[in-house]
Amino acid sequence: MDRVSLCLCFILGTIYLSNSVGDEDIRCTTSSCSSATCDDIPEKCTRNITNPGTYMLSPDICNCCEYCLANLDENEACSVGDPSNGKHTSICGPGLSCLTVDGETDGTCQKMTTTCMNEQKSYDGRKKNGTLGQMETKPSCDEDGLYSAYKCIPGEICYCTASNGSRIFGQADYSTMSNYMNCDCSKKYYAGVDMIGRELGPHEHFRCSSNGDYDKLQCINEKCLCVDTSDGAPTYPTKSLVNITKISTDTLSCYTSKKVGEYYKTCESKYMDVYKKVQEYKAQGYNQVIGYEYPNCDLDGTYAPVQQNKTHKYCVDIEGNILTAVSKSSSGTLATSMNCKCIRSNLMSSTVDKPACLENGNYNPIQCRRGFCRCVDTDGNQYCVSGVCEYDESKKNTMKCTK
């Protein structure tokens, strides 16, 4: 059970408790903790150090006591515990897990062996040996050993990532403060998609900003409010929601448009027009409605990079203007593999040395910069082939970048 699930269990398990012996309910009030006896929290939790421990609700009735799990360091003794154990007072620190011998509950804290942690180990080893690529970056892992919220390509862009490291919606110019990106809106959207099993329309999810955080203005079921960009929480929880037709700089402080009632962006607006027409036909008893095509919108309401019609696939900018197009019938893999990541990144990046793109807007797998060439993946990240990371540009034609 990870840290988050532990905390949720305590929250959900102590809001309301029913007496298993009699019919009397036990409800937590302001006086419930007046006679509670609390244990001292671990001394390490009180130290002024980085990652001293994890504070959470105490697993006691009404959560009366302060409770902290002290973070253990690598190689310190730990226990995975069992249902008969009392309250735990320690836990392996960020990036560590309790490694035990088969059948034992006691062990030692060791570095996790997740994909992200293994990549970090590989990076550190190659850095020590002097075999790193000039544009390689060390993978960033969270405390559970999963990939952090975003990844950066030096001098180009930073983009949001899922916990498995795959690229998801949200990117920003590398020159901006990447610390402003937490990608929570984007990550929550894809978590919802995984749970529901289908993509969601603009009217079914919180709108994100272009960097994957929450848009500060949200409209849900025609009702609008301002939210915190980091977690989507209402900025003014006590204020009434505003009807979407009446949003303005007077009714919502986060509203920036000069036109009253303007929430949906161009792509969202066209999507909603089609959606409403389809719903009208369904209300009339039609089970299937054909002839309408939904535009492909990104999570911030702008046009997604890849659009298509019956004959072509094409890359567009956020306003839907065509940047490049390929024929579905004659372009083969150029059409089927089109992702437009390179051409879109070039529009955002402020760097002088912009990456080279293929005809379909994807990254050219061979990138050259200042006399040297390197191999990159479909997201633009450098990787080494057989231990070789850079080639002299004069040998560009001998490079084989396949991953």
TrEMBL record:
Localization terms from the record: Secreted
Ranges of residues in domain Thyroglobulin type-1: 113-185, 337-401
Keyword field: Disulfide bond, Secreted, Signal
Signal peptide: 1-20
Keyword match Secreted: yes
SUPFAM superfamilies given in the database record: Growth factor receptor domain, Thyroglobulin type-1 domain
Alphabetical list of Gene3D superfamilies matching this protein: Thyroglobulin type-1 (4.10.800.10)
The UniProt record lists the keyword Disulfide bond: yes
Cellular component, GO annotation: extracellular region
Name under which the protein is recorded: Uncharacterized protein LOC115878327
Species in which this protein is naturally found: Sitophilus oryzae (Rice weevil)
